[in-house]
Amino acid sequence: MSMMRTNKNNAPRPVMNKACHFCTNGIDDLEYREVRVMQKFLSSYAKILPRKKTGICSKHQRMLAQAVKRARFMALIPYTTR
């Protein structure tokens, strides 16, 4: 479940255990053409979100980063939005 940790002000904050989206759905390969899937893991500025925020395992985070970089090169995803 969730545990409580303290921050600088000693105020408790919840810690959620996240499951990897790709592991739970049985997705083994992530193609650079799957733009809709990748956009869930990008910020509003088209930056790749960290694992801590998305809950993806390290294996799939590396696959996601490679797919996003390839999609950017093929002009399917912008490098930045500004």
Task: Explain the overall architecture.
The chain has a two-stranded antiparallel sheet. The chain is flat. The chain is built from four helices and two strands. The chain has one domain: 30s Ribosomal Protein S18. A hairpin with a 5-residue loop joins β1 and β2 (about 10-15). The protein has about 80 residues and is α+β, with helices and mostly antiparallel strands. The termini are far apart.
CATH classification, class level: Few Secondary Structures
CATH topology-level name: 30s Ribosomal Protein S18
Structural class: alpha+beta
Low-confidence stretches: none
What is Rg? 15 Å
Overall tally of domains? 1
CATH level-two architecture? Irregular
What does the average pLDDT come to? 86
Per-chain topology:
Layout: E1 3-6, E2 12-15, H1 21-24, H2 35-39, H3 51-54, H4 58-73
Keywords:
82 residues, alpha+beta, 30s Ribosomal Protein S18, 4 helices, 2 strands, 35% helix
